[in-house]
Write a structure and sequence with these properties.
It is built from 14 helices and 16 strands. With 379 residues, it is of the alpha/beta class. The protein has two domains: 274 residues, LarA, N-terminal domain (Rossmann fold), CATH 3.40.50; 84 residues, Alpha-Beta Plaits (2-Layer Sandwich). Strands 1, 2, 3, 4, 7, 8, 9, 10, 11 and 12 form a ten-stranded mixed beta sheet that branches. Strands 5-6 form a two-stranded antiparallel ribbon. A two-stranded antiparallel ribbon has the order 13-16. The protein starts with a strand and ends with a helix.
């Protein structure tokens, strides 16, 4: 049985968070069950982009600080690292407050730069992960609970995609990002290459709507912990009220026969799920439809039955970040405007995820507009 612990915590006040995390870890043996003296322990928060803590894009620095302190108190050597999507590691660490958390806790900030190529465990033959991530004695995963425009939800398993260094992420989006199921398998294979010993989810303030970078903060007041990120995500999905069929990682994990994909395999300790808000998270407007059809039909229908990104001309400053990050090279700047090739676009939503100006809109295809209007009238 995989144990997942829930704990209420309604504030990022340092003292409250420290008490809450100690209580959170108590049913699973405390930090000492996961960290031994002398071990090099890497904390992997969500450091998506240059955002302040109140925007709920990154893992809150108080949580990072407390966990780093507990690692050091257990005799471990605490490191904090990630590979942000945009903005540079030090800039993201500074703006998010995580650099200050490292200073306060005595942890070392480590940027993911060099990679180690590893044999894949299933679908993908070779996967490269950050060297510091691979060589750490232990990984403690510190995700933020957020909605995600491609994968519906980002939490424990998805957060480990940050172990892929920099520009290599775009290559994987192009290779595996045309299908949510395929991308979910990639995430699961990354997880299996080096499993975190502990996952602690920041859901005190989560994100709903157009996550992971442009959604709205949502007060939930929860912390989650467990050693199996698949099981942790299953509970997080229930907490967020997300329909099971939209949890692509969980569905693929079940098909692969991985542990922690059914409620019969999980025990929940601490607070009850009923203790938290029951209103489902508002889901992204950019969620796409996947078609099991021949490619020529798929591409034809994709234009009309799915949503696609488009620039808000009032907000777009033509910085080129989305263009440079686009895996299929579907974005260009011409005639002093941003242009998206709908046929080439794979709907990975990296452009919206990484835009620092929140300038990428979601436009619906013609047929999708009609269907949505009809559903709205019937409702």
């Amino acid at each position: 049985m995989d144990q997942v612990v829930l704990q209420q915590c309604n504030s990022y006040d340092y003292d409250q968070v420290r008490v809450a995390i100690l209580q959170l870890l108590e049913p699973i043996g405390g930090i000492g069950a996961f960290v031994k003296p002398g071990e090099r322990v890497l904390l992997k928060p969500n450091m998506l982009s240059v955002k302040s803590p109140d925007q709920a894009v990154t893992t809150h620095p108080v949580i990072v600080r407390v966990v780093a302190e507990l690692v050091r108190e257990a005799g471990g050597l605490a490191m904090i690292g990630d590979s942000p999507g945009v903005g540079g590691f030090l800039k993201v660490a500074g703006k998010s407050g995580i650099a200050n958390a490292a200073t306060q806790s005595g942890a070392e900030l480590v940027e993911f730069k060099d990679s180690v190529e590893l044999p894949g465990s299933g679908t993908f033959r070779r996967i490269s992960l950050a060297r510091v991530y691979w060589e750490a004695d232990k990984i403690i995963n510190l995700p933020k609970l957020k909605t995600h425009e491609m994968m519906t939800m980002t939490c424990a398993v998805k957060n480990l995609f940050g172990a892929v260094v920099g520009a290599e992420k775009a290559g994987w989006h192009l290779k595996a990002g045309t299908s949510q199921g395929q991308f979910a398998r990639l995430l699961l294979e990354i997880y299996q290459l080096k499993k975190p010993v502990l996952n602690i989810v920041d859901a005190i303030v989560a994100m709903e709507g157009n996550g992971p970078g442009s959604g709205d903060p949502l007060q939930v007041g929860a912390l989650l912990a467990g050693s199996n990120p698949v099981a942790v995500d299953l509970v997080a999905g229930r907490l967020a009220g997300i329909p099971p069929e939209l949890l692509h990682v969980e569905r693929e994990a079940r098909l692969l026969g991985l542990a922690g994909t059914t409620w019969e395999e999980i025990t929940i300790s601490g607070a009850s799920l009923k203790s938290f808000p029951t209103k489902p998270f508002r889901l992204p407007t950019g969620l796409t439809v996947q078609f099991g059809m021949p490619r020529f039909l798929n591409n034809l229908l994709k234009r009309h039955l799915t949503s696609f990104p488009a620039a808000d001309r009032e907000r777009c400053v033509l910085c080129g970040i989305c263009r440079d990050a686009c895996p299929p090279v579907a974005i260009e700047i011409k005639n002093s405007a941003l242009s998206v090739d709908q046929g080439r676009c794979i709907r990975c939503w990296c452009c919206r995820e990484l835009c620092p100006h929140d300038a990428m809109l979601v436009r619906r295809g013609r047929v999708l507009k009609i269907v949505s209007a009809l559903i709205g009238r019937r409702g």
